[in-house]
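Last lecture ended with a question: if I hand you only a sequence, what can you say about the shape of the protein? Today we answer it with a concrete record. The protein is CAD87 protein. Below, first the input exactly as provided, then the predicted structure, then a couple of comments.
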Amino acid sequence: DPDSGDNGSLQYSLVGGQTNEFDINENTGQIFTVSVAGKAGTFYLQVQAADQGTRRLTAQTTVNVTVDSSSSSNVVMLVLNQKISVVERKSVEVQRVLEEKLGWNVYVLNIYSKESDRNSRSSTDETQVNIIAFDEAHQEVPAEDVKRKLREQRAAIELGLQDVFSAPVSAAVPEAPAAPASPERTAAIVLGVLLATTFIAFLAYVLLDLKRKRKYGKQDLVKKVDIMEGIDNPWADDKNGSLKSLEKPEHMNN
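The predicted structure:
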């Protein structure tokens, strides 16, 4: 709009189509995704531009957005502690800082908040930015390499973004959640623990039983020795070192 002042100040809005999946920056007209996870195909959006004059003039057009189901596996998420509306306005500057600190061509694919409701989105101080990087040969940089360099350059990136947002900025790369164990692996672990517990219990029983037998065996041996010491042993040595006679003493014959 070539007019000056309010007559030339445009505001953009989505007035028709599949508006639940997309939103628009009312100042720049930039369209971004809100929730298209798991969806593919072509979406039709009716976009309106309106000036701010006394007699408000408007114009509309249809925007077709095609979502490809075969998304890249090298997309990396960066979480900023800034409101989504602020990040959207500064997306070009955010991209510039990332390219400068990472040394690659960086593209901001989408900017979104965890909250889908627009009022909640405007008040949440956490924005998720999906990016993808390309090297000098225009090849996608593997996601793990991007994450590693984001962590290495985090301090420099946060310092650069602080100049962009005029406020302290935290730029974090969230850790992927650990994959849950499969049912087969869980069952194998449980079975292994049960077998190990059973074996330990059996081993403890055997050791206790063996110890008990040794204890009672010693007691029986002591009893036998006591009994034997109380009985005249015909084969025992006499005081002279010779064997005692097997004959009965004379007084026994009488």
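Comments.
1. The helical segments are 84-89, 91-102, 118-123, 143-152, 154-165, 183-229, 250-253.
2. The domain at 9-67 is CATH 2.60.40.60 (Immunoglobulin-like).
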